[in-house]
Design brief:
mainly alpha, 2 domains, extended
Length: 184
């Protein structure tokens, strides 16, 4: 019996192989919910689980190449949400419109804040783009609804207070409109 055959017949190896097979079956079941993966599998004859895992490994690898970390992170934050936003616009249901509009508001606000502090953050947080990508995935994945959580917990209170304060300060006079109407 060769060394490879001994390893393959070892109970621990068989147990790990069975566990990996179960996880692949679960992933295949989850990916089957998305027509893009099913179409990809039919056209390429490549199992969708392997394509998904390969794509995920490519993104992880690109994060290790520092000059590409920022574009990859921004691609993750833009590509799938843009596609799903286009689909939401065309669908009759308003719930997906609200989800993606909320995502874009939070994503835009986050990028706005990032533009002010990026150099400082990069100095103190060496794996910033990995954390940013994980945060962006949390924002956009429907299982977590992170954009809605962030909007209601952070943005709505802050922007709501700002808008309320501006409304209270804004002067309202009727004489200006009456004078302007009399001069026409």
């Amino acid at each position: 019996m060769s060394a490879v055959q001994k390893i393959q017949s070892h109970p621990t190896f068989i147990q790990v192989q069975n566990k990996a097979s179960q996880h692949l079956q679960q992933l295949d079941k989850e990916l089957s919910k998305y027509p893009v993966f099913n179409t990809f599998e039919q056209r390429t004859q490549l199992p969708k689980t392997y394509a998904f895992l390969g794509g995920a490994l490519v993104f992880v690898f690109l994060h290790f190449i520092n000059p590409l970390a920022s574009p990859v992170s921004n691609l993750v934050g833009w590509a799938l949400p843009a596609y799903l936003s286009f689909k939401a616009i065309e669908s009759p249901s308003p719930s997906d419109d609200v989800q993606w509009l909320t995502y874009w508001v939070v994503f835009g606000f986050f990028n706005f804040l990032e533009s002010f502090a990026l150099r400082l953050v990069l100095y103190y947080v060496p794996w910033y783009y990995v954390f940013k990508t994980i945060f962006i995935l949390w924002l956009q994945l429907p299982a977590f609804r992170g954009a809605q959580v962030t909007y209601f917990a952070v943005l709505k209170p802050v922007v709501g207070n700002f808008v309320a304060n501006n409304r209270a300060v804004a002067p309202t006079t009727t004489t200006t409109t009456a004078n302007a109407a009399g001069h026409d």
